[in-house]
Amino acid sequence: MSNLQAPVLVTVCVAIAACNVHPSITFLATGDQGSELALTDDVGTCTAPAHVAYLTGLDGTSLRGCWERDHSQIVVHFKDLEDQRVSVGAFRRTELGGYHNVSLN
User: How do strand 62-70 and strand 73-78 relate by DSSP bridges?
Assistant: First the structure.
């Protein structure tokens, strides 16, 4: 590797990493009202071990919260709302979740 190639390679890698600002949605569940709950692999502003979750309604509104596993349920905490509890079995792994081989166990 020449003296010029190393800095270029590092710059490209940093640029690619910087572009990945959105958390990866690894699991989805659809509610009975048509809302969708998305679980991500990002800790974001959540207190570990919790991760970022998004709840999207049919009208396009979206809430951001934090999710954790509690035995056979996923508990999602949204600001100013009651905690949402959803059975682990209600979630389906996304293609990206499958690629990264993540599980809710």
Answer: antiparallel
